[in-house]
Write a structure and sequence with these properties.
Layout (H helix, E strand, L loop, with lengths): L1 H15 L5 E5 L17 H14 L3 H11 L6 H11 E7 L6 E8 L1 E5 L8 E4 L6 E3 L13 E6 L2 E3 L4 H5 L9 E5 L2 H10 L1 E5 L5 E9 L7 H7 L10 H10 L4 H6 L5 E6 L19 E3 L10 E7 L5 E10 L9 E8 H10 L1 E11 L13
Parallel strand pairs: 3-16, 4-10, 13-15
Antiparallel strand pairs: 1-2, 2-17, 3-17, 4-9, 5-9, 6-7, 7-8, 10-11, 11-12, 13-16, 14-15, 14-17
Helix pairs in contact: 2-3
Length: about 375
């Protein structure tokens, strides 16, 4: 009886003392599911772009040494790339809130139709970052706010919350005169904010690229969650195509549904010929090799081993790099895969809502140099 009780007590202890969310124990590369089957060279451009940032900061000896070595190898094959990661990094399990499983979604770069001026067709604005938007970084006082600056505006001598979506999107907007571009569809304008960047095709056929400039500081609330709460959709059927279908069938409710998300994103023009949208790390994203993460748990720039599936059920195990963030990306085991541009990327990204696990790769500490003294 004592043994049985002891075993039961120990089992309870395991649940009582589950590891906290975040980077957990060290593991071997052999413990990463599918590690040997990946095309590791495909992640090399993303790693080198992270290295550009780390070398510019020049504060971490391990990264400086590692990145100088990576920059010296321009185009490794898969075997060379794999050997580099295995010799230069150490993998760690990422723990979720009571489970190692988390949510893996996707995003892409959409193409909208728009104009530089307002017309009867193009009457839905994309806004620049407003001058009265304040960003307050309180990390030095409250470390738990790392990666989550507070945004607001001045009201006399007080800082108050910035305008929410409903206030910005009304017909007589307080941001009038701050328009960057005009597009022809309010739903596509909303989805562009969710994706964070995209391209706009002008009436003459040319394109301009827009990228994330800032956000109004309000929490992101997904349309899918709102439709589930209202009983309009079941949790298992919430995908971007299904949300589009619901909106098309309920045009009179579109404005209220969009405004149920108070978060609002501002844009800036970027080079149309850029390789990809620029993520929060400040480097262009690489299709299927860059992900958005929660920087409160995973430092931007770190490689991450992703173990999940695609919407069709096929395994999706690959080396990616944390190079972006997002309003909906909250939690340790939470990633948003950048799938690239075009309709095919949009289809996969719109349906991606998979369970998955993550492993963070941290640089190995530099080996100490042993100096041999001469004996007399």
């Amino acid at each position: 009886m004592l043994l049985v009780c002891t075993a039961a007590w120990l089992g309870a202890c395991v649940s009582w003392f589950a590891p906290p969310p975040g980077i957990g124990r060290e593991v071997s590369f052999r413990a990463l599911p599918g590690w040997d089957e990946d095309r590791h060279a495909d992640s090399w451009p993303a790693l080198r772009r992270s290295c550009e940032v780390f070398l510019a900061r020049a504060t971490d000896t391990a990264w400086i040494e590692l990145c100088h070595a990576a920059q010296a190898i321009e185009s490794p094959d898969d075997a060379q790339a794999r050997e580099f990661f295995e010799s230069r990094f150490i993998p760690y399990v990422v723990n979720g809130d009571g489970s190692r499983d988390g949510l893996i979604t996707g995003y892409y770069e959409p193409l909208l139709n728009g104009s530089l001026t307002r017309t009867d067709r193009f009457r839905y604005p994309l806004y620049r970052r407003p001058d009265n938007l304040l960003t307050v970084d309180l990390t030095s006082l409250y470390p738990e706010l790392k990666g989550r600056p507070v945004r607001g505006r001045l009201d006399g001598k007080r800082v108050i919350p910035y305008l929410d979506r409903a206030q910005i999107a009304r017909e007589r907007s307080p941001l009038a005169g701050n328009e960057l571009l005009w597009v022809d569809d309010p739903v596509e304008a909303y989805l562009l904010q969710v994706q964070g960047s995209g391209r706009v095709r002008l009436p003459d056929g040319s394109q301009v690229a827009v990228g994330y400039a800032d956000q109004n500081g309000h929490p992101y609330r997904s349309l899918g969650a709102q439709l589930i709460q209202r009983g309009e959709l079941r949790r298992e059927e919430v995908t971007l195509p299904r949300i589009r279908e619901w909106i098309a069938a309920h045009p009179e409710e579109t404005e209220a549904l969009l405004n149920s998300n108070p978060s609002f994103v501002f844009f800036r023009l970027r080079e149309a010929g850029a390789e990809g949208p620029v993520g929060s790390l400040g480097v262009p994203l690489v299709a299927e090799r860059s992900i958005a993460v929660d920087p409160a748990y995973i430092t931007l720039g770190l490689p991450v081993w992703l173990d999940t599936t695609l919407p069709d059920g096929s395994r999706y195990q690959r080396l990616v790099v944390a190079q972006d963030t997002g309003g909906a990306i909250k939690g340790a085991v939470r990633a948003d895969v950048f799938f690239g541009q075009g309709d095919a990327a949009g289809k996969v990204a719109g349906e991606m809502k998979q369970a998955g696990r993550m492993y963070v790769l941290r640089p190995r500490p530099p080996q100490p140099v042993t100096v041999l003294s001469k004996t007399p």
